[in-house]
Write a structure and sequence with these properties.
Distance between the termini: 74 Å
CATH superfamily of the largest domain: P-loop containing nucleotide triphosphate hydrolases
Largest sheet: 8 strands, mixed
Strand order of the largest sheet: 4-3-5-2-6-7-1-8
Helix content: 25-40%
Pfam family, one: AAA_22
Number of strands: 21
Strand content: 15-25%
Number of domains: 4
Radius of gyration: 27 Å
CATH architecture of the largest domain: 3-Layer(aba) Sandwich
Shape: globular
Enzyme class: hydrolase
Number of helices: 25
Protein name: RNA helicase
GO molecular function, one term: ATP binding
Catalytic activity: ATP + H2O = ADP + phosphate + H(+)
Length: 700
DNA sequence: GTTAGGGTT
């Protein structure tokens, strides 16, 4: 019989290697027992001591002991994410069953940092050192001392345990990125600190924006505590700065502003290749369009130049790229060749490319914008901040000293570029954010102490939408049970509402599948080159009712194929995305079970399915303008001009009345995930909304 | 008449 290394059992020894049954090979990794004078352990320890943060070990522990909040400013490579949690554990912060928590904005970062720390501590991942991300809990209650998790997961944990009583210290990493989740967390943690003054916070940030962070966390104690409370930490935040370990990066600017950053980027790449020693080039552009265009320009140029330019390996990089193409980016550069990666800002924070020595920075990126009056989020090309520019430049100094070529003038950088970007909270629709705060008992949204306050207009718009969905009542409190149930579901509230309404139409089974599809980016593989085949593949699943029903067809096909990746490839479907659909659906089934809502299928009654969809998306109804521009719709609520997105199965079909799931705004407002409806269903689903919103919405 | 910066529950 095989012996597995179970939690709580003895650590495996070398003799536990067992491959009798064809494949269980458990080699001990680095153990921390003193008897193991393993070379691996010693060198790991030496590596830890070489990190810049090591010098500050004592200082950090002292500040955390004495201050409620410690702000650690450190560039990448300082080792703060992996080392500080270990220092805290060594100093006893995890004693007595308490937890040291460390959040990251991204799932991948959580996993990699956690496994690195487990290795350094010399324990099996998931025991003393563990992590939790959505769909994956690698912790062992009672055993785990250091826990890594995404900000989003920590917010969810607060719904069970609002004061986060299990934690003695919480470190918020990458706080400078100011994602919505990070900002919500910062605001909530400040509140928790008032109730739990013994809780320690560490805010880890890459920029000096730390100062505004410090102002945010300083607690003025007007009715100040008596002096005797000196076992409590100082409420005034401490700031500590740790240098990074990156190599120096020489910055070059253009002398005159460039009129076309695409052309400038292409010629800069060619100049670097001609004049600079070996080393890969990373180019930052804004989006897939830009990147494809630059790729083509670069390849055209090379055709006309000398042979020596054939040494360039030019690769695109953006999140929508199929998995196989993304792997090419990480393959080592062939000998005698130079890799050129043309990327969106995915390479700024989410992915790290080894071997980059030269960075070309266009100075632009696509950024989300939100207009609370029209309730439309859009993506616009906008100038980046100084903080982003420095982050981009830093990508050139990971292996050896590098160079960064900025396609803007030094004068512009010094005098016109914003120091920091606008926090995402101030550029987004707040519906999800507000429902999370409500679920945590924060009733006064307008009076909430936000790290960066969103506009009152944006907050009011979100409250209005939640009210019209029946999630909030007239007093802006969560309704029972709908409001509380929606808050518990890990979805866009409109989608949650759709699920809860499905029960009335007897189609919860179908609606759960649709909800899962709506929660992933896109299930199609973007292939611009083979459009004809792609369109044909899509037609195999297309439903006359629209995209939501098409998803049901894809789901059925995927199941019948045995969840085959081959099948996905043949049908231009993203296998990863479909596996995620399955996971999300399973999670939703569990939530429904908890609510006591039965799963029911309506078989082929797609009218029921469409009516359930409308119960969530009735506010997104549109009517085709028959005498207007071809394919132009107008929203019923605001008479906004909108068009069906080319990825929709209803593109060019143009039914008279439609409801959309979301708007994507580029040069036009495009409706994504569209379904054809009868106008009478709208008044049926939301009489309150259509009566007071528009005097005469339906023609009949 | 034709399209997606990056994340997360």
């Amino acid at each position: 019989m095989s012996r597995f290394w179970r939690p709580g059992s003895e650590k495996p020894s070398a003799s536990l290697v067992d491959d009798e049954e064809g494949g269980v090979l458990l080699l001990p990794t680095n153990t921390n027992s003193s008897s193991s004078s393993g070379f691996g352990y010693a060198s790991l320890e030496r590596q830890r001591q070489r990190l810049p943060v090591y010098k500050y070990r004592k200082a950090i522990l002292y500040l955390v002991e004495r201050h409620a909040t410690t702000i650690v400013v450190g560039e990448t490579g300082s080792g703060k994410s992996t080392q500080i949690p270990q220092y805290l554990k060594e100093a006893g912060w995890a004693e007595g069953g308490r937890l040291i928590g460390c959040t990251q904005p991204r799932r991948l970062a959580v996993q990699t940092v956690a496994s690195r720390v487990a290795e350094e501590v010399g324990v099996k991942l998931g025991e003393e050192v563990g992590y939790t991300i959505r769909f994956e809990d690698q912790t062992n209650p009672g055993m785990t001392m250091i826990k890594f998790l995404t900000d989003g997961v920590l917010i969810r944990e607060m719904m069970e345990d609002p004061l986060l009583t299990k934690y003695s210290v919480i470190m918020i990493d990458e706080a400078h990125e100011r994602s919505i989740s990070t900002d919500i967390l910062l605001g909530l943690l400040k509140k928790i600190q008032r109730r739990r003054p013994e809780l320690r916070l560490i805010i880890s940030s890459a920029t000096i924006e730390a100062r505004s962070m410090s102002t945010f966390f300083s607690i003025r104690r007007k009715n100040s505590l008596p002096e005797s409370a000196d076992d409590l930490p100082n409420p005034e935040p401490a700031i500590l700065s740790v240098e990074g370990r990156g190599y120096t990066v020489e910055t070059h600017y253009v002398e005159e502003p460039v009129s076309d950053y695409l052309l400038a980027a292409v010629s800069t790449v060619l100049i670097i290749h001609e004049k600079e020693p070996p080393g890969d080039i990373l180019v930052f552009l804004t989006g897939q369009d830009d990147i494809d265009a630059a790729l083509k320009l670069l390849n055209d140029e090379i055709q006309h130049l000398r042979k020596h330019y054939f040494d360039l390996v030019i690769l695109p990089l953006y999140s929508g790229l199929p998995r196989g193409d993304q792997d090419l980016i990480f393959a080592p550069t062939p000998k005698g060749k130079r890799k050129v990666v043309i990327s969106t800002n995915i390479a700024e924070t989410s992915l790290t490319l080894e071997g980059v020595v030269y960075v070309v920075d266009s100075g632009f990126s696509k950024q989300k914008c939100y207009n609370p009056i029209s309730d439309i989020e859009s993506l616009v090309v906008a100038p980046i901040s100084k903080a982003s520019a420095r982050q981009r430049a830093g990508r050139a100094g990971r292996v050896r000293p590098g160079k960064c070529f900025r396609l803007y003038t030094e004068e512009y950088y010094l005098n016109e570029m914003q120091a920091d970007g606008i926090p995402e909270m101030q550029r987004s629709n707040l519906v999800s954010c507000i429902i999370q705060l409500k679920a945590l008992g924060i009733d006064n949204i307008l009076g909430f102490d936000w790290p960066a306050s969103p506009s009152p207009e944006a907050m009011i718009r979100a409250l209005e939408i939640l009210f019209s969905l029946g999630i909030l009542d007239e007093d802006a409190k969560l309704t029972v049970p709908i409001g509380f149930q929606v808050a518990e579901m890990p979805l866009d509230p409109m989608i949650s509402k759709m699920i809860l309404s499905a029960n009335d139409f007897g189609c919860s089974d179908e609606i759960l599948t649709i909800a899962a599809f709506l929660s992933v980016q896109s299930v199609w593989v973007s292939m611009r080159g083979v459009k004809k085949e792609f369109d044909e593949a899509k037609l195999r699943f297309a439903a006359a009712e629209g995209d939501h029903v098409t998803f049901l067809n894809i789901y059925k096909g995927f199941h019948q194929s045995g969840k085959s990746s081959q099948w996905c490839y043949k049908n231009f479907l993203n296998h990863q995305a479909l596996k995620k659909v399955i996971e999300i659906r399973a999670q939703l089934v569990r939530v429904m079970k908890r609510f006591g809502i039965p799963l029911k299928s309506c078989d082929r009654d797609m009218q029921a399915v469409r009516k359930a969809i409308i119960a969530g998306s009735f506010a997104n109804s549109c009517h085709l303008e028959e005498y207007g521009q071809n394919g132009m719709y107008k929203t019923i609520r605001t008479s906004q001009e909108v068009y069906i997105h080319p990825s929709s199965v209803l593109f060019r079909v143009n039914p008279k009345w439609v409801v959309y799931q979301s708007l994507v705004s580029t040069d036009k407002h495009y409706m994504r995930n569209v379904i054809a409806i009868e106008p009478s269903w709208l008044t049926e689903a939301a009489p309150h909304f259509y009566q007071y919103r528009t005097p005469n919405p339906a023609p009949h």
